[in-house]
Amino acid sequence: MRTVIPYFLAIVFLVGCENSTRAYSKIWIYLFSDIDSSTEGKIFESYIRYGKGTSHHIYYEYVVNGKVYQNNVVGLSDNVSDDYKLVNKYTPGNHVVVYYDQFKPELSVLEKSELTLWVIGEAIGGLLMGLFCLMTKW
Fold this sequence. Notes:
Elements: H1 4-21, H2 23-32, E1 35-51, E2 53-64, E3 67-71, H3 83-89, E4 95-101, E5 108-109, H4 117-135
Antiparallel strand pairs: 1-2, 1-4, 2-3, 4-5
Helix pairs in contact: 1-4, 2-4
Domain DUF3592: 39-112
InterPro entries: DUF3592
Organism: Microbulbifer epialgicus
């Protein structure tokens, strides 16, 4: 049982980081895609989750070559201070422009921006906490 605890905690930190900030998704999009095309999409869910701070959850769908895709990444530089502004801007039913990679249309954003150091820091922090859990003797 003692050997399972570090692995469990490492997974919890990594999944928690992704769920709260979507940092790994943003880095993946930045590194492995070329957001070069756009289409019209529609917001189908938008809300703020309260807990230890707030986080926005904005879900949209769009169609590329007859296939429907769904995503929740607004931009690569989402900032916690923008939660209320983003939820008010992207309300359910709104039609929006979705930017996507023409070769991997499942990779998309609503706002084109550069990856920020904040997002990179969140991802590194999650990885370091995961590694700490794995290296700690239980």
